[in-house]
Design goal:
The complex is a heterodimer.
Chain A (H helix, E strand, L loop, with lengths): L4 H10 L6 H13 L3 E5 L5 H11 L4 E5 L6 H4 L1 E3 L1 H14 L6 H4 L5 E3 L1 H7 L5 E5 L6 H13 L1 E4 L3 E4 L5 E6 L7 H5 L2 E5 L4 H11 L5 H15 L10 H13 L7 H6 L8 H25 L2 H5 L1
Helix pairs in contact in A: 1-2, 10-11, 10-12, 11-14
Chain B lengths: L2 H4 L5 H14 L6 H12 L6 H12 L5 H12 L3 H28 L1 E2 L2 E2 L4 H9 L2 H15 L9 H19 L38 H23 L10 H7 L21 E7 L5 H12 L8 E6 L3 E3 L1 H4 L5 H11 L9 H11 L8 E6 L7 H14 L2 E6 L10 H7 L3 E4 L3 H12 L15
Parallel strand pairs in B: 3-4, 3-6, 6-7, 7-8
Antiparallel strand pairs in B: 1-2, 4-5
Helix pairs in contact in B: 3-4, 6-7, 10-12, 10-18, 15-16, 16-17
The chains are: A alpha/beta, B alpha/beta.
Chain lengths: 304, 455
Amino acid sequence: MNISLPDLKKGFTEAGYICNESTALTVFLTLELNKPLLIEGAPGVGKTEMGKVLAEIMAADLIRLQCYEGLDETKALYEWNYQRQLLRIQMNRNLEEGQVREEDLFSEQYLLERPLLKAIQAQKRPVLLIDEVDKCDPEFEAFLFEVLSDFQVSIPELGTIKARQIPVVVLTSNNERELSDGLKRRCLYLYLDFPSVEDEVRIIKAKVPEAADRLAWEVARVVARLRQEGDLRKKPSIAETLDWVRALVALNRSRLDGKLVGETLNLVLKTRADQEYFRQEIGAPEIDSVLKQSKDGGETSQCR
Amino acid sequence: MPLKEQLPDSNLKENLVTFTNLLRREGLPVSTTETMDALRALERVDLSSRVDFKSALQATLVKNRRDQDYFERLFEYFFAPPEVRQRGEEKAAAYKEQAKEQMAQATRELQFKGESLQLSPAELAQYSTMTSEQRGRLQDFMQKTESGVNVEESFRPILETLVKSHLRYFRTGSSRERGAQPSGGSPEGAGSGSGQKAALSEIDIQAISASELPQAEQLLQKLSRKLAVQILRRRRSGPRSGPLDLRRSLRDNMRYGGIIFKLKHRPKRRSREQILLLCDVSASMKQYSTFVIHFMHGLREAVRDLSCFSFSDGLENMTPELKKKGNLQHLLDRVIRRSEIWGGGTNLGRSLQVLLNKYPDLLNFRTTVIVVSDTKTIAIDQAAGELNKLKDRVRRIVWLNPLPPEQWSDFRSVEALGALTEMWPCSTISQLEAVLIGRLGNLPGGRNVSGGRGC
C-alpha cells in the first residue's frame, strides 16, 4: 500500500501521534524506499508508539520482537517444535506402524514461527517492530542485519524462504549501546527528542481531551523545566506527563502550583534520588515562578 | 527560490557526492549505499522545500545523534543561499590575507643574528596563534640568548630546537581546542575547523575552561551512568546464559522417561572484577586525573570494588575519602586540601613501590589497574621495573595517556612503560568514553603501544 506524505501526516494526527514535519518525512521515505527505520531517543519519547501508530495508519498487522540479552535466532526467527517431534516419534513407535520419515518431522507442521519469520511469510505487508535493539547481543545484531538486507531466510531442512511482502521495519533503541555500522547502514535514521512545550500541549490535548487547556500548558511547562535538569537520573517522559495529567484530572484540578507538584511528584519523578533532588535543588517556589512566567508570557491567553 | 538554483551548479548528483565527501572528511561514516539512498530519497521529496530537502539528507546520511551537529553545520554552509555564501567567501578571503600577514610577521620576529629561523609553516602558524604575552616571553628568551657572551652562529641549531619545543608545548594545550579559524572560500574547505565551536567532548580536557567545567562534569556523569547501566545489564543472566548442563537436563527430564524435553543451562560465570585507579596528580596532569575520577565515581554502583590512588612524587589512597556521601567536587576539594602530593613532580617508580608493598591485598588476578599519566617521570628505568612487578600481580594494566599519539615517539618513557601496558591516547572526553567503554564494557577493540588497533 502506497501512502502519500499528506495522508501520512493526516494519519498521524488522527491517531493522536503529534510529530514535526521532519519526522513525518523520514517515515514517508522509509515506506517509499522500503528501508528499515532506526529510531533512537530517550525512553518515553514515542519510539515504540511510532511502530504501533504506523500499523494503525496502514491497517497492517503489527509483529513485535522485543529484544533482550540472550535473544537468539530460535526466539526471533524459527524453532523446530522439539516436543511435538518427539511425541510423534513416540506415538509412532507405540502404534507399531511404519517408520516415521525424517521429511515428515521437518515439515512446516513442526515449525514454530517466531516474529521475523512471521513477518517474512505474512500475506499482507505487516509492520515489524524490533524494540530496544540495543539490548540484544552484538552476534544477534549481526544476524539481524543479514535478514534485514535480503528479507529472506534459509532453513536448512526447508530451503530459502523469501519475503512475500517486504515488511515495514521499525527498530527502536535507547542508545545504551552503540549499534554496529552495518545495521545503521541498512536503515534510515530518526532521532526523537523530547517535544517542545507547544507540541507536548498538543499531545496532552490529543490523549487526555478532558484536561483543561490551562492545566495542559502548565503541566507541559513544568515538565519542560524538569527536563532541563541535567542531574536528574530519569527525566520525565511523555508517558509520565500523560499519567500526571490524568491523575490531576481525576483529582478535579484545573490549575497547577508548586505545592500540588510536590504532592504528586511521584507520578513524574520515579526515583527517590530524583525526588530528593527536586526538593533540595528546585522546590515549589521555583515551580511557582515558572508557572508565573508562563502566565506572563501570554500562553494562558493562547489556550483560552 | 528553488533549491536547485541555489546550488553552485544545477547538477544535483555532483553536489551530493561533494557533500557526502565533506561529511566523510568530518568523520561521518557515509557509504556509497547511503549516498544512493539519499539520491533516491531526493527523487521523492519536494526539492523546493528546504526543510524537506534537509530532512531527506539527514535521514539517509546521518546515523548518529552526535553527528547531527556536524551535518547541520555543513548543510548550512554547503547549501547556503548565494548571499550568505558570498559573505562567507569574503570572510574566508579576509582571513587568508590576515593569516598571510601573521606568518610574515612571525618570520620577522623569530630571527637569530638578523636571519630567520628554519621553522615549518605549521610552527609559524602556531606562533601566530599565541597570545602577545606568550610571544613576548619567547622573544625575550631569544634576545637574551642572542646577547649572551660567546654566542656564535653555531648556536643557531640549538636555538631552533629550543624554539620548536616551546611551540610544541603551546600546541599541546591548544591544538585540539575549538576550531577557531573560518574555513576557506570553497565548499571543500568547510571541513574540520570550519569556524564552529567543537563539541565539548572533543576538546582537549586541559583546554576546558572553568566556565565549561560544570557542563563537562554533567557530560561525564551522563556517560558514566550509561556505562554503569551497560555493566549492570551484563550481570543479569539471560534465559540461556551459560553452556548446556547435561547432568541437570537429564535429572529434570527423568519425569518424561529420560526423553529430554527441556534443556537446562548453567549460569554464566561472573568474575568479581576489581578496579584500581592510579591518577597522576602532578601539575600538568591534575585536570585529566580529576576528569577520570569524576567518570569512575559515576560507576560506583556498577563497579563496587573501586580503589582510587593519587600519585606524584609519593602515593596517597583517596578511596576512603571518595566513598563518603556528598558532592564529589567537595570531596575532591577536601582531598586536595589535605594532600601533600597534588601538584608536585612525578616519581612513578617510588609510587608503585609503595603500592606494591603497602597494598598487596588490592593486587590480584581480578584487578584491572587504570593508570592516568603522561608517563613523564623521573627514574624511568626504576618505574619500568616496578611496573613490570605490578603487571605480574594483576590481571591487566590499562594506561590512559593524554599526550597526543604523534608525540609518543619523542618520549622514551612512553616506549618503556607502554610496552608493559595497554596504552591508549586519552586527552578528550570522547576518547575517555571510547577507552573505558571498550575496556570495562568488555567490548571489542584494544591497542598496545607495541602496535595494535587504534582507539
